[in-house]
Amino acid sequence: MAIWAAALAAALYLPDQGKLVKEFFPVGAYGADSVNGSALAYETQVESDLTYEMILLREARDENYVDHKTGQVVMSDDGVTETAADKESSERADGELKGQSAGEQPADDGEASNGSGSLATAEPDMADGDSNQAVAQTSTGSQANPGATKKAVNYSFDKLRDFDYLRQNFYQVDSTTTINGSQLNVDALLGKDMRLSHDASAPQIIIYHTHSQEGYADSIPGDAATSVVGVGDYLTQILTEQYGLNVIHHKGTYDVGDRDHAYSNAAPAIEKLLADNPSVEVVIDLHRDGVAETTRLVTEQNGVSMAQVMFFNGLSRTTSTGDIDYLYNPYIADNLAFSFQAQLKAAEYYPGFTRRIYLKGYRFNMHYCPKTMLVEVGAQTNTFEEAKNAMVPLADVLYKVLTGPI
């Protein structure tokens, strides 16, 4: 009752076609779902009576926020922080998902998911270390082969059907939200067809940056080409030149002097881009994570050192209140399917390349398009070259999901 009273007293404000409408939204509770026992990055106090504006501010700050002078990870302006040691422990746990973790098998057991729905028969020599030719297009400009051709690891489909196994091996669930087997159901996640429906004669993909000012350890201040925007340039180049896709790289800035409203600031631009380019089917928000200064998110793929990446999903649901009606996202199931299919492809072809998918309680502008993805490319402790090198396997993973067999 205390939650309902507090929520009613809060009198939430919602934008309604340019007007502010005062409205109270009842919220429904979801079935209890215990949070993964591992250390949680992005720890945030659960809210029950925040105004709409405060929710948006928290959404903006919770994706990542680090005080690099003190090494503390500051999650919001409500006084909740996580120590650098706690954060590092969680990040290190993410980084340990390399090679064969529990339940993984070399790709020679005759059964594998193709990442889009139906099962595929594994080739006998899938575990051959020489078969995964690759990925070595680096920032020096050397030309690469078009991605890994055979799987290095094969996941048991039966094990993936186990909710606990799936969550523990592929996801990190923030304490602000809950998830259950109805949303993390491997048949549903792999059953959605994520393939592009048309050729490259019209735009297919938009890449943009809610936080365009995010840079790397050796980024040059004021030089966007050495920031996450430059990483987006390289991803665009690979997708267009190597894979023949039609990509729009939008370089609008929405966090200059006001990071707290970056998602709100970016929303009208994304709406206009989609309205002006109705053929676009994929929206990718490319970020750089924030971690403790002692943490290094680095992996080696085919002899090339690169930053690890992390897919990030907003569930528009908090632990305390259930669905956040005013952050409605009709495409949550599609968003989850897109990130999981990419995560599985990465785990199969590039073990250790990705951290676990992070599930958060808010929306993060993922409601405009079914195939929307928020990607964290390394962190402020990575070099720009490491982040740039990571775009080679990422592009290959995206291409495999968006064009592969169903």
Structure summary:
It contains eleven helices and 20 strands. The chain has helices at 2-10, 52-62, 84-95, 157-160, 163-170, 186-191, 228-242, 262-276, 332-349, 384-389, 391-403; strands spanning 13-16, 19-22, 66-67, 72-74, 81-82, 104-106, 112-113, 119-120, 153-155, 171-173, 205-208, 247-249, 282-289, 298-301, 304-307, 309-314, 317-318, 322-323, 357-360, 371-379.
Q: What does it look like?
A:
This protein has helices at 2-10, 52-62, 84-95, 157-160, 163-170, 186-191, 228-242, 262-276, 332-349, 384-389, 391-403, and strands at residues 13-16, 19-22, 66-67, 72-74, 81-82, 104-106, 112-113, 119-120, 153-155, 171-173, 205-208, 247-249, 282-289, 298-301, 304-307, 309-314, 317-318, 322-323, 357-360, 371-379. Residues 1-51 and 65-145 have low confidence and may be disordered. Strand 11, helix 7 (228-242) and strand 12 (247-249) form a beta-alpha-beta unit. The radius of gyration is 20 Å and the shape is globular. It is 29% helix and 18% strand. The longest helix is centred in the C-terminal third of the chain and has 18 residues, at 332-349. The strands form seven sheets. Strands 10-19-16-20-13-11-12 form a seven-stranded mixed β-sheet. It has a three-stranded antiparallel β-sheet with strand order 3-4-5. It has a two-stranded antiparallel ribbon with strand order 1-2. The protein is built from eleven helices and 20 strands. It has 406 residues and is an alpha/beta fold.
